[in-house]
Design goal:
Helices cover about 40% and strands about 25% of the residues. The chain is α+β, with helices and mostly antiparallel strands. The chain folds into three domains: about 100 residues, no CATH class; about 160 residues, Dynein light chain 2a, cytoplasmic (Beta-Lactamase, 2-Layer Sandwich), CATH 3.30.450; about 110 residues, 2-Layer Sandwich (Beta-Lactamase), CATH 3.30.450.30. The strands form three sheets. Strands 4-11-10-14-13-12 form a six-stranded mixed beta sheet, sandwiched between helices. A six-stranded mixed beta sheet has the order 7-8-9-5-6-15. The protein has a three-stranded antiparallel beta sheet with strand order 1-2-3. A hairpin with a 2-residue loop joins strand 5 and strand 6. The longest helix has 20 residues. It is found in: Endosome, Multivesicular body membrane; Prevacuolar compartment membrane; Vacuole membrane. It comes from Neocallimastix californiae.
């Protein structure tokens, strides 16, 4: 730490700021966010900008737990304060976020991963959330694992992808399945100076029991939500409600129960969970020979979908290698001085391509044994296929 401080101070003397040190084997990237200094040492082919974005996420993860006001005050009062004392219990968020940088395309694309369901079902879910939300919430978010199903929000406040990534990281990193959680959180892109309060709960699917011994009598309830005659299953669908009111827990808990009941009565759970068998795009759906993997991002909605990770990318190391190839292509396009729209890379493992237009970004991996020309023509067919789909993204915003 002393060496890092000395290097930073050396540049500060001349009112300069250090950004990166390149050696023959390592890249050392600095992000200076007073009062914190974040440093990354990397041996990957990621660029300075890509590594700096990762450091920025980690910095915002700290704000997610503390707010910028608290952080500044702490170090103003005690310059040598050990910040780990205040971050006890949140290490899991930092660790999981660091792990995801190498295995989740969300951070490369700066976009939100969406659940693939039919638009009419997605809109119906949004209407239920919108019609039953409490008065004092800013956002209502419904997710399936790490994928967004729908979101309702106040008219004045949209959700930045960075804030959404931090929320989803919190949900997927913690054990919320068996409890209702109530936590103060800071959304840095919404307001880095203050807290919101997050109600998080996984929803229960209630199915009538098929037991032949169930008595048929007015003395026994026959409602599909009756606990005595029903099978209750904890789903992978999670409801998150964000409120500025720290005393709103019970109101939001009642709201969750109401939404859960409507979902059960209208069959929403069965429809969504039956859709999850096809939630991930399959290469065979697109019908392009030699195609191995595709990521399609809508730049209009800042959302993306990804094909299922089939061999060889079902292997963790192979998928990390693929993402690094995509990062390399992205750096070539955005680092080029001219208006470059297409980039490719061929190695012994695969042929990877990136095609960027005003309304989309298309990443694809092919067998290394086909030509660049064939792969480019296939990209045109893939783009046409995605344009025909109406179940990929949240296109109708539910606003209250």
């Amino acid at each position: 730490m002393g060496v890092i401080q000395a290097i930073i101070s050396f540049y500060n003397v001349d009112n300069d700021e250090i950004n990166c040190i390149n050696t023959s084997t390592h890249k050392i990237v600095f992000l200076l966010k007073n009062p914190l200094y974040l440093v990354c040492v990397s041996q990957t082919n990621e660029t300075e900008e890509q590594l700096k974005i990762q450091l920025l996420y980690l910095y915002n993860q700290v704000l997610f737990s503390l707010t910028s006001v608290q952080l500044t005050k702490i170090f103003h009062d005690r310059v040598n304060f050990d910040l780990r004392n205040l971050l006890v219990g949140t290490e899991i968020y930092m660790d999981e976020l660091s792990r995801k940088f190498g295995v989740d395309a969300s951070y490369l694309l700066k976009s939100i991963r969406c659940l693939r369901i039919k638009n009419d079902l997605r809109n119906k879910i949004g209407e239920i959330l919108n019609n039953n939300h409490p008065k004092n919430i800013l956002y209502g978010i419904l997710t399936y694992n790490d994928k967004l199903i729908n979101i309702v929000r106040s008219k004045k406040h949209s959700v930045h992808p960075l804030d959404m990534h931090l929320i989803i990281n919190m949900i997927t990193s913690s054990s919320f399945r068996s409890v209702e959680s109530w936590s103060p959180i800071c959304l840095p892109k919404y307001n880095s100076r203050g807290f919101l309060y997050a109600y998080v709960s996984y929803l229960n699917s209630v199915e009538p029991s098929n037991s032949e011994n169930s008595p048929e009598s007015p003395m026994f309830p026959t409602s599909p939500t009756s606990p005595s005659l029903s099978k209750i299953t904890k789903t992978d669908i999670c409801l998150t409600l964000l409120s500025p009111n720290k005393d709103a827990f019970f109101e939001l808990s009642n709201c969750k129960k109401k939404i859960e009941k409507i979902f059960n009565e209208s069959g929403i759970f069965n429809k969504v969970l039956s859709s999850t068998n096809k939630v991930e795009l399959d290469i065979s759906d697109i019908g392009i020979p030699h195609l191995r993997h595709v990521i399609y991002k809508s730049t209009k909605y800042l959302q993306f979908v990804e094909t299922k990770r089939l061999p060889p990318y079902d292997n963790h190391a192979c998928y990390k290698r693929l993402l690094r190839s995509y990062k390399y292509l992205e750096s070539k396009i955005h680092g080029y001085q001219k208006d470059l729209k297409f980039s490719y890379m061929l190695d012994k493992n695969e042929l990877t391509l990136l095609w960027i237009r005003d309304d989309f970004e298309l990443y694809a991996s092919f067998s290394p044994f086909i030509s660049k020309t064939i792969a480019y023509n296939d990209l045109l067919l893939i783009e046409k296929w995605f344009k025909k789909q109406d179940n990929l993204f949240i296109t109708t915003t539910q606003i209250f």
